[in-house]
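User: Fold this one for me? It's DUF2509 family protein.
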Amino acid sequence: MRRQEGMSSLLLVLLVLVLGSLTLQGTSIRHQAQVSQAGLEKAAVTDSAHVESLLEWGRMLSWTVQPTDHCQTHPAFKGRVCLRLFVDGSGVLIASSGEQTRWQTGTLIDSTVQFDRHGWSDFCPLKETVQCQLP
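Assistant: Here's what I get for DUF2509 family protein.
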């Protein structure tokens, strides 16, 4: 009889160990998923900062005023900025870095591109989305 009581105590200890091991494994999987998600969010925030900086840098550049596409790259940021001018005198500045893209609308006035003060957007401001893609 005593032998059976010792066996049930051993089984109870083993059961607690198995349950603890499963709990730790589940916690580890959840932790790995959170670390992965944090890495993706960090990359998105970095790309967003780069594209905002590229857009502002592009606004400060002196662009040639011909109805063609012009592109520049900045060595500090991964991405590029392009100016697309149209024959009607309007234009759009396109900045892209990683998965992020921003647009800034503008107008050609006296051979100078004047960008709209509140014209930036994180979605294509033009009717034809093809015109919003980088060349």
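One thing worth pointing out: The radius of gyration is 28 Å.
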